[in-house]
């Protein structure tokens, strides 16, 4: 749905516009000035043609519109004397002021004035050529507030939330639940005219034709069952925005196509780049952007957020916002009837940057909340990356690879963190964890990565990183590729990691004393670390008989040797040396690159955690008890 009001006006009202310019020229012929050497005094004017160049439309209440039509007029001036008639061809731009009602199909079209066009004055409430309101991103909050002042003013002070059903009722709309498609690909649908339409029976799944009244909103019940209640409420408000802002654009569509009756809102679909976006694209962008701002008004949400922060900070006995941010997000979501994703994005928009470090799920695991110095990250940057992206980044970036191979960085809880006791501790099972200090100061100890949502290929999607990056939720369905950020962003932490080499002297001593034969090297390391056969058998998931055979020179497979390295939590340089002395060499195959990554970045993890990572990439696991 992308019609041109300019084209419609120029075709339907050409004669009226022509007459308006012709009459203006003839009434004001004596005032016409010309640079012509042929005509000095105008005796008559003859208009030959006009061409509509632009139509500037202002929005007015209801379905009325006021618009200025700019036309270029070609006309001929003539001067008569006793002997000759002299002529001069001229061209000027004229502004024709008009008014009409779309509900009357513009049958009441009326011209209110015509004048020479000199400049374009400032428009109030401008509409596009498709009669879609022109709303800039920075105007969205004001538009949402104006909407609420009109229909739901009591929601502006934070005392109560917008009830979508009450809102629809106040707007004269009816909300019904109907299955709109077999595959739930359409969330909602609003009807601007009485019509007959198709819906699907909930039991048989067969389509049925029913009569629908204008002002009816259909919401697919699968919207709730497949997603959440917040999504259902958002759909209703979304459709209310269409009714509020887009009726004129729909009336224009009706001028071209009398069969048009509704706007359908799909679950997903690419939005085109700015210059090629259709009227429907713009309407969907406006409804998508405004609905959460209407559900969570700016001032009201700030008030409720402050209340929740005071409550939860006191209950937890902490003064750190990140410690209660997830509870606040959940509180906002419940109070305003929105999804956690929507609440998270709204709090971030209101200045709570800590929201970005919450409700992140990677590799089917929950990432603990974390925070950083304000301004450390751009909207498309993160400290949290998946195992697969960590593996790729550590392979293709030489700086990252160098510090990783030295054991100066460790991959823990989906972060590349400096391997130091200030930032890393080990739980009762011996698994590395971020210290609270590290979680509160990610900018001090972890590397930054830039995120690119997979499958987003057009300009509009790429410029809207915020909504995508903040929705790295387990149910969001949005996938990302993480790339190691510009070296300058990570230089400080890389240098800090290089400086933390206290343990390198001990490692150097171990390597210098390590026996050449693999069996003796294994025995030496077990003695040095005071590791027993039984404890290593458990830590490597190999079994005591396999460990004994390895100590004797048998059962030597790459997977068994790697399992021993992980089981003893050997630093990378020692692991690689042990693997070499066992007679193995890690190549650049997909399997060996993953194994190398575990030795370099995950050696502090348990064998079970490492195997989970491998299984997720369909790579053979380590350690098989026999």
Q: Mind sketching the topology for me?
A:
Elements: H1 5-12, H2 14-27, E1 44-59, E2 64-80, E3 85-101, E4 110-116, E5 126-127, H3 140-151, H4 164-170, E6 174-177, E7 186-191, E8 195-200, E9 207-212, E10 216-219, H5 222-226, H6 229-245, H7 247-256, E11 262-266, H8 279-295, H9 298-316, H10 325-336, H11 340-349, E12 360-362, E13 365-367, E14 381-382, H12 387-396, H13 398-405, E15 409-412, E16 415-418, E17 424-426, E18 432-434, H14 436-440, H15 442-445, E19 449-453, H16 459-462, H17 465-469, E20 480-484, H18 487-499, H19 504-513, H20 518-529, H21 533-540, H22 544-551, H23 558-567, H24 572-581, H25 590-601, H26 607-616
Parallel strand pairs: 6-10
Antiparallel strand pairs: 1-2, 1-5, 2-3, 3-4, 7-10, 7-11, 8-9, 12-13, 14-19, 15-16, 17-18, 19-20
Helix pairs in contact: 3-8, 4-6, 6-8, 9-10, 10-11, 12-13, 21-22, 21-23, 23-24, 24-25
Tell me what the structure shows.
The protein is an alpha+beta fold and 626 residues long. It folds into 5 domains: 5-127; 158-293, no CATH class; 296-356; 359-499, no CATH class; 503-617, Orthogonal Bundle (434 Repressor (Amino-terminal Domain)), CATH 1.10.260. 42% of the residues lie in helices and 19% in strands. The chain contains 26 helices and 20 strands. The strands form 7 sheets. A 5-stranded antiparallel beta sheet has the order 4-3-2-1-5. The protein has a 4-stranded mixed beta sheet with strand order 6-10-7-11, covered by helices on one side. A hairpin with a 6-residue loop joins strand 8 (195-200) and strand 9 (207-212). Helix 10 (325-336) crosses helix 11 and helix 24 (572-581) crosses helix 25 (590-601). The protein is elongated, with a radius of gyration of 35 Å. 38% of the residues are buried.
């Amino acid at each position: 749905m992308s019609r041109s009001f300019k084209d419609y006006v120029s075709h339907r009202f050409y004669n009226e516009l022509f007459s308006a310019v012709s009459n203006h020229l003839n009434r004001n012929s004596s005032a016409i000035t010309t640079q012509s050497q042929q005509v000095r005094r105008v005796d008559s004017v003859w208009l030959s043609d006009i061409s509509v160049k632009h139509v500037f439309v202002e929005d007015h209440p209801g379905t009325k519109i006021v618009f200025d039509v700019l036309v270029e007029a070609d006309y001929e001036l003539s001067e008569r004397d006793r002997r000759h008639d002299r002529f001069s061809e001229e061209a000027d731009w004229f502004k024709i002021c008009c008014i009409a009602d779309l509900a009357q199909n513009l049958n009441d079209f009326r011209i209110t004035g015509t004048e020479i066009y000199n400049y374009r004055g400032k428009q109030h409430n401008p509409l596009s050529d498709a009669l879609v309101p022109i709303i800039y991103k920075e105007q969205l909050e004001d538009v949402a507030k104006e909407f609420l002042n009109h229909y739901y003013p009591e929601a502006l002070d934070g005392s109560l939330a917008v009830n979508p059903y009450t809102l629809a009722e106040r707007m004269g709309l009816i909300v019904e639940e109907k299955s709109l498609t077999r595959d739930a690909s359409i969330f909602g649908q609003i009807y601007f005219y009485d019509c007959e339409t198709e819906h699907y029976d909930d039991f048989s799944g067969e389509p049925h034709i029913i009569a629908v009244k204008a002002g009816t909103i259909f919401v697919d019940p699968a919207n709730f069952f497949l997603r959440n209640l917040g999504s259902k409420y958002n759909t209703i408000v979304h459709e209310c925005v269409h009714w509020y802002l887009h009726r004129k654009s729909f009336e224009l569509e009706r001028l071209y196509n009398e069969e048009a009756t509704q706007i359908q809102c799909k679950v997903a679909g690419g939005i085109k780049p700015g210059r090629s976006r259709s009227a429907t694209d713009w309407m969907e962008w406006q409804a998508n952007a405004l609905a959460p701002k209407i559900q969570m008004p700016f001032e009201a949400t700030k008030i409720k957020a402050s209340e929740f922060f005071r409550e939860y900070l006191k209950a937890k006995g902490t003064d750190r916002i990140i410690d209660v941010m997830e509870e606040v997000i959940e509180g906002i979501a419940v109070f305003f009837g929105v999804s956690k994703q929507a609440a998270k994005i709204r709090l971030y928009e209101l200045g709570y940057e800590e929201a970005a470090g919450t409700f992140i799920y990677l590799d089917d695991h929950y990432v603990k909340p974390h925070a950083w110095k304000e301004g450390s990250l751009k909207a498309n940057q993160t400290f949290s990356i998946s195992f697969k992206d960590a593996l790729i980044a550590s392979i293709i970036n030489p700086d990252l690879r160098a510090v990783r191979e030295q054991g100066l960085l460790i991959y823990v809880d989906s972060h590349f963190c400096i391997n130091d006791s200030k930032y890393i501790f080990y739980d009762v099972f011996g698994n590395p964890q971020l210290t609270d200090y590290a979680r509160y100061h990610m900018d001090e100890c972890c590397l930054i990565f830039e995120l690119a949502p997979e499958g987003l290929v057009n300009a509009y999607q790429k410029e809207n990183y915020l909504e995508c990056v903040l929705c790295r939720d387990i149910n969001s369905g949005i996938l990302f590729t993480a790339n190691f950020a510009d070296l300058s962003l990570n230089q400080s932490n890389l240098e800090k990691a290089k400086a933390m080499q206290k343990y390198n002297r001990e490692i150097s001593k171990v390597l210098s004393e390590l026996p050449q034969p693999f069996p003796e090297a294994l025995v030496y390391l077990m003695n040095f670390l005071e590791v027993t056969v039984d404890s290593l058998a458990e830590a490597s998931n190999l079994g005591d008989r396999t460990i004994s055979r390895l100590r004797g020179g048998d059962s030597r497979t790459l997977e068994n040797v790697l399992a021993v390295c992980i089981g003893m939590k050997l630093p990378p340089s020692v692991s690689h040396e042990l693997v070499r002395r066992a007679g193995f060499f890690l190549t650049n195959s997909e399997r060996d690159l993953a194994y190398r990554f575990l030795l370099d970045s995950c050696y502090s993890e348990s064998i079970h955690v490492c195997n989970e990572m491998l299984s997720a990439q369909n790579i053979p696991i380590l350690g098989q008890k026999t």
